[in-house]
User: Fold Mannosyl-oligosaccharide glucosidase from Ciona savignyi.
Amino acid sequence: IRRLISTVIGLLAASVYDSWWRSRRLFTPLSNDNQIEKNDAKFWGTYRPQVYMGMKTKSPRSLVTGLMWLKQHERYQNELPLRHTCEHGDKLLRYGWTAHDGENFGIQDMVEQGYIIRTSFVKKSGGLHGGDWTWRVTGTQTLNTSTTLSVFFYAATDQQGQLTPMQAFTQSCRTNVQTISGETEELGKFSIKFPSENTGVKTRYHWVAARAEGLHKIKDAALRKMQAAIEKVNNREKVIYFLGDSPNKSDPPGTTSDVTLKLPFELDIVFESGSAQRKVELSRDVYTTQLASWKEKFDQNFEERFPLKNKGYDTAQISFAKAMMSNMIGGVGYFYGHSLVQSDQQKVPVPYWDAGLLTAVPSRSFFPRGFLWDEGFHQLLISKWDRSLSEEIIEHWLSLLNKDGWIPREQILGEEARSKVPTEFVVQHNKNANPPTLFLAIESILRGFNKDNVDERDRKFLSKIFPKLQVWYDWFNTTQTGPVPFSYRWRGRNGDTDSELNPKTLTSGLDDYPRASHPSQDERHVDLRCWMATASGTMAKIARVVDPDSASKYEATHNMLSNHKILNELHWSAEMGLYSDYGNHSERMYLARKTKKPKLRFTDTFGYVSLFPFLLQILRPDSQQLTQILEDLSAKDLLWSDYGLRSLSKRDPLYMKHNTEHDPPYWRGAIWVNMNFLAVRALKHYSAPGSRNSEKAAQLYKELRWNLVNNMYKEYKRSGYLWESYNDVTGKGQGTHPFTGWSALVVLMMS
Assistant:
């Protein structure tokens, strides 16, 4: 009995330890090897894409700088419309970078009704802390009316270091701050200067010190310090708003300054590192010359990488492409903090470890944070402009792998990022995947390597990422497999809901795209299977360079997942003539879903998911299935439109149908650029001479590419923005804007 009790206690202890050990793996990093290099030329950058203008360093406790502005002489009924974070509600006619090289300079226009604010910056390397930089802010009128603006510049530290305003008294300004002297742990000593020879008629100059509860509250801190006064303009009384300390002396100190100017104006803001040496200040004519020089180099490099002149594009179209690429680069941000995650072992969410992430963002206004499946598409473009930047971003994402090989699909790091996210989307669950699109980007980078002799730098990059990719790849093959061999299934669908027309599959990235009507463990998802075929092929190519002994394993898996016989057995519906998911499915009768008895069968949906064996170029060029897909692709009552391929067939019962009363269609007919890019790329691949499908593919390639580029350019001219998706009937942009994440792939389609 004693031995039995001892054995039972031992088993219970082992079970408790196993549960404890498994729970800790959720928030334990696979490795921690991202080092901060302060003398990196990209240490400073516009790494705050969520604000109209701001700079910080790639480090956890950076000095943060930013810009705000306010139109004066207006009587505002509600909260002052102080511009700061990128917001739809601000209703700017247009804003975004017109040129940005990701390292040395950038030029950006914010177009308001009646005036334009242009912000530009130039960096100069040197010293031990990222060197110097200068901003130039200019204001110009576009209407024949007098306009007065207040421009607010702020510098903030994160509970460490110090900022000391150095004042000067002049005839025109009571308390003119010429310099902010500072010191932080990461930057050492520095100064921020406001040269007095700026152009423009100054009417007021103020500064205040304040403390904000976090970066997401800086605007609120400025508004708390705002005061109003009446002044006479052309013998009429006008309201003027300015920064000033209120009688409440308990408000703790910290540094924001504002200057009120009549348009036109120009002012420089100069940051100088205490560890850098310089002969002249980077301002005035020196700045003008440097900016012009970097812009000229940018134009030359752009034409080398994306030769649009040779393809017949005019100056306006090329400027459009430069702006879209620049907005992708200018949308790269550095975020620091932790995700909130949960597994079956946790009753409540727990914090992931604190980590930094360098990533592009889908939208500065609505999605200013990292999304895993978006990022692979982003890097297809970024890697063509600056491969080292792309490789650094990929390394950052892979550093977020936990011990099990999971990466949270949405990275909500820090208070500033979290303030933009609805509560229900904050917690990430460790069973949920996202398409492994980073393999697309890595595959694209591999094509740029010397195939016969991979150089040491490239080999070092592959050697660094390969062990992490192995763990990530194994996680997919452990947790996302399907019910039969060589099948895969997305997790995360809700099989218990009665409120959805078709339960969403958020983990697939395609959200409300129709799947099997009744979620179950019997499902097989063709898109995930194709993603894993692509991943296997990329793993095999990397292994041949850095670990030849393991290459055969990945090649065998790739061959199996690319095997047409197995693919067709699992996912080809001969009756419907299309590739399809398989699962517990019934004919859809709108919200009467649960009244129809389902059965295991292929789903009767034709759309993006049906195209995946074609999109990821798994089909043989002469296959009958490819012939069928190309035939269906061009049918206007299915996916083809004058503006691109719609996400769901017009014949489908769920085409443009709400998923719930308050959940409008998302991937149920709209034109999405990332999927259309894959289609254009695949058509180019299959148009190579030598197969029975090449002529049809070549024709569709030419037509689809033209439809997409022409409509996106036309919509940009009309609206001033790229959009999240495009209407399949009118071609108009819809959803959030600006969406210079994967919609910026229009640059690759042009080139």
Notes: Confidence is low (pLDDT under 50) at residues 247-254. The CA atoms of residues 487 and 524 lie 6 Å apart. The longest strand covers residues 256-273. DSSP finds 17 helices and 30 strands in the chain.
